[in-house]
Amino acid sequence: MSTEKFTRIAGRLARAIRITPKQTTLMLQVKVIREEKQRIINGLRKRGWSAAQIKIIDQIIGLDEQRRNTQKDMDDSLAEGNKLAKSIGQMMAQGQKAEAEALKIEVAALKTKSKMMEEQLNTLKAQLDELLYSVPNIPHKSVPKGKTPEENKVAKDWKKPFPALADTALPHWDLAKQYNLFDFELGVKLTGSGFPVYRGKGARLQRALIQFFLDEAGKAGYEEIAPPLLVNEDTARGTGQLPDKEAQMYKCDLDNLYLIPTAEVPVTNILRDEIVPAKDLPVKMTAYTPCFRREAGAWGAHVRGLNRVHQFDKIEIVQIEHPDRSYKTLQGMIRHVEKLMNKLELPYRILLLCGGDMGFASAKTYDFEVWSGAQKRWLEVSSVSCFETFQSNRMKVRFRDENGKIELVHTLNGSALALARIVAALLENNQTPEGIRIPKVLWKYTGFKMID
Questions:
Q1: Phi, then psi, of 4 in degrees rounded to 5
Q2: How far is CA 255 from the centre of its chain?
């Protein structure tokens, strides 16, 4: 056999043992946990995590140490295998066939060893990812401590008088029956509890609000997106819905797809695995979608009518932003939602959520609540959040700065707005003896000024 042929064989053997395992998708997060362990622990405590729960941080660090040691052993094995593979061709060229055959056996053994280490690394990766995906985002330093909604801080209160309603004012579920606006019983017949059927002027009001919110988002520079209503696991995992919110999501088992709980999920994932030029930031997108949430186990008057439904319409605003500007952008998104509330003439307040009441993926969240006149209670209608790099790290959404350096973007989103409770508040706050008054800003969309 010629020297050239043996050289080709040796090359193939060398390439055969160059097995590079997939790196964990959250390596940056592991690096942050290792280097800023105490900050991470303090943040989890702010979220209300117990000492037992926080032990997961040590588990992650320990598992990552195993992964790194295994990676080193594998690299050493690969280096040795490459060295031996190169020697085979030289020995054959020099007529040392017996020695070359012996090296082939060693190379084959190294190949087997490398394959075993690849499997071990993939197992460690899967275990590490499982732990990492269960750790929530770390709250921004300005987020207040607390575990319950009662510990949220009022960032902006309503200073004006509430709508003056008669003592006989009706809640929206009774108004719906009186004016034939939406039908809960029919929804039960067609689907089940929590799926109202809008009809007549109720359906037109719903459609008017959707168009109004989209038009306002367009004026603010958001590109309209019409995304799919079903997403795969990678998409749901990218924004943090999986594994945290899996129990609240509707799943199509046959196709392994999920109905979206919010347009945030598909819209934010549009830039998954992309590198965005810094000059193109921020990327601003908006979308109208129906949203689907199981939210099982909720009972009582506080979830009656449109207060808690399993399918509702919502307009979402999303921004992909430079890290240096994300919290300024968050304030701009809050002002956008405020303008919508003011144009609809609805009383509202803004809450800064405490660590224990924030969503899994959020670094800082403000909630908007609207006053429900007949129920005499506040209803949440919007959450506006900054996620910093929590989502972009999972989705690998990055930007390249002017110097060519690649970094993770910050992601933000907000409800602008969620319709079910907005409809409830509009109906209740605007009821008069003559009928239900429609806010002036909606007249061109509804085609009517009163529901009577």
A1: -60, -40
A2: 21
Concatenated DSSP letters of 318-339: EEEE-GGGHHHHHHHHHHHHHH
- Contact by Cβ (8 Å): 329, 336: no
Cα dihedral 420→424→427→431 (10° resolution)? 180
> Which residue's entry shows tokens 């939406």?
182
What phi, psi does 153 have (nearest 5°)? Answer: -105, 135
pLDDT in tens, 278-311: 999 999 999 999 999 997 555 555 678 999 999 9
- Residue 214 burial (10 A CB sphere; 0-12, 13-18, 19+): middle
What is the DSSP secondary-structure string of 62-73?
HHHHHHHHHHHH
As a whole number of angstroms, the distance between CA 216 and CA 284 comes to 13
**End-to-end Cα separation, the chain, in angstroms:** 97
User: Read out DSSP for 401-432?
Assistant: -TTS-EEEPEEEEEEEEEHHHHHHHHHHHTEE
Q: How many residues does the chain have?
A: 452
pTM over 0.90: no
